[in-house]
Amino acid sequence: MLDAQHLECIRACQECITACQVCISECRQGDTQAMARCIALGIDCSDLCKLAANAIARNSEHMDAICALCAQACLACNEECLRHAGLHCQRCAEASYYCAEACHHIMQSHVFQHRLHLRG
Question: DSSP code of 29?
Fold first, then answer.
């Protein structure tokens, strides 16, 4: 059964997926050459958020590694989106930062639980 922290991370991933998809769509309607990196990082972020949410939901043995990669992609997306003034980029930056934090919390809780298990 998933605890509140895992459910919150899944929700953060889902919100980030939506924000990334909106951002990607909006960026593609403008100067795609100028927004190419934003689009590419948004795609990576969205794809990895989907993978992380699914891994958490099924309690995958690779969850920590997937969450680490998801957090890395989210932070890269966040940094790029913060460089742009569009509201869609600002919303994506906020969602990706929140998702990165949620993924880090998952990884930290698993490290703590592993240490407790080793002591036990």
Answer: T
Q: Per-residue DSSP letters for 77-102?
A: HHHHHTT---HHHHHHHHHHHHHHHH
Host domain of residue 51: 4-119
Write down the pLDDT at residue 93.
Answer: 98
pLDDT tens per residue, range 34-91: 999 999 999 999 999 999 999 999 999 999 999 999 999 999 999 999 999 999 999 9
For the chain, what is the mean pLDDT? 92
CB 78 within 8 A of CB 60: no
Of 61, 71, 77, 59, nearest to 23 (Cα)? 77
Alpha-carbon torsion angle 39, 42, 44, 47, nearest 10: -120
- CATH number, residue 60: 1.20.1270.360
pTM over 0.85: yes
Domain count, the chain: 1
Query: Helices 4-28 and 36-57 sit at what angle, rounded to 10 degrees?
Result: 160
